Amino acid sequence: MTDPGTRPTATAVADAGGSAGEREVRRSTRSGMVGLAGAAVNGLLGFVLTVVIVRGLGPAGSGAMFTAIGVVAIMGVLCCAGADTALVWALPRRRTGRDGDAARLLPVALLPALLFTVVVAMTGVALSGALAPVLFDPGTREGAGLLRLAFGGLPFVVATTVLLAAVRAVRPVAALVAVQYVFVPAARPALVSAALLTGAGVTLAFAGWLAPIAVAVLVCVALLARPLGLGAGAALRPVGADWRTLWGFALPRAASATIDASSMWLTVLLTAALADQAEAGIIGAVGRYALAGLLIMQGLRVAVAPQLSRLLGQGRTGEAALVYRRITAVIIALSWPGYLLLAVFAPGFLRLFGAEFTAGAAAMVVLAGAMMVNSGTGIVQTLLLMSGSSGRHLLAAATGLLLNVTLAVLLIPPHGALGAAWAWTVGIVAENVIATVAARRVVGEPLITRSVLRAAAVAGTATAVLAAAGAAVAGRGVAGLFLTLGVAVLLGVALLLHPGVRRRARATAPTLLGRGPS
């Protein structure tokens, strides 16, 4: 037993810190695996929804639907005013339960956001007729109806977003995954398909896209009741410090959140306004593919954000940086192969939507490169936000937005979807570089290490060689795509049959499952 009067040695402190760091990594890995599973389901269901929309409505009709969805995405995040991210940051630093002070933050976040949303929704409904010719082609007769429906559904969208953020902060990640990544994305293609099969137009299909949100509000309230002590005597009356704490973080985040969440939809809206609805439909389809790979990062981000907030709030920056590096290496290993395949086999991927969408192949190549930069910096945006530096994050996001919009105005009229892709790419790269530099300064720990670079080199090189071989043999179309995927599966099975690989997998499994060595 250690003598109470003996000062711990440097080695003992380092061992304790390393042990604590590894425990935090195992905890983040457990949550991350659930988040990844949810992201996979969400990505598959999102692809199904996109196929339903583009196959059922064609380029012009899908462009109109994507435009309406874009209005909801942009206005929904704007009306949340950063309250959702503020809850993810603040709730893990509070005491939950009946006697805790966490529940007091719920009305602080929810009431101002909903009041603001109601005002915006009423204004938007009143101005729908005037806004429709700006956002939709002149021949789109359902434009005004789509906008009225989009603005009318905003209060439900905002309530769900804020409540889901609270669920994310106080419940295990599986609860969030069940609602946001499974229920809502599963209901949407089913309802949109039902509307299209009845011969309904874009407006009713869009109503099917909105409908699951209303149910999600009730589910979130039920999930929050027990951990926050709602209905069991928990104090819901906030004090002045609660307002200052939450909105001091939320207001700078409001602008950056709008920029982050609306990047694709802003590109679609600008393309519709500066080119035409068909080009908007093409960039919408291309953007769906490009953002699909980010679902891996999103699944891991939602899993570890509360953990990062807790660690950074306790001054445990080394452990937070370790979690960041491990998660980023996983993101690169899982995302880069997909983006390289998107770039090489862009015509094949887009052919699955219909022959008319293959015109966006060059735009797909450009955006795949941008998303490799985005995923290569990992969850740096989350790390910066969970440190409390919402102002620095706003600077990064605003710089990316300014570059995106400026270049869009210059490039979309002559180049259509390709010009939109280049503008979006420059904005993405600039935002991520600025955020990475800011996070390194705030956290004070190295973020990009040899382990991260090694993951990038292995994932990039192996996939590039395999994709180049597949394209050389069968071309960049559907045949080359499926040949390459088939060879990749066979190689994966062969590796798993190798005794050395199996031994390494067995040795790694306890850590991945959150257990120490046996």
UniProtKB/TrEMBL annotation:
The entry's keywords: Cell membrane, Membrane, Transmembrane, Transmembrane helix
Protein name: O-antigen/teichoic acid export membrane protein
Membrane topology per record: Multi-pass membrane protein
Regions crossing the membrane: 33-54, 66-91, 103-126, 146-166, 173-197, 203-225, 323-346, 394-413, 419-439, 451-472, 478-497
Positions of the UniProt region annotated as Disordered: 1-24
Coiled-coil annotated residue ranges, if any: none
Localization annotation: Cell membrane
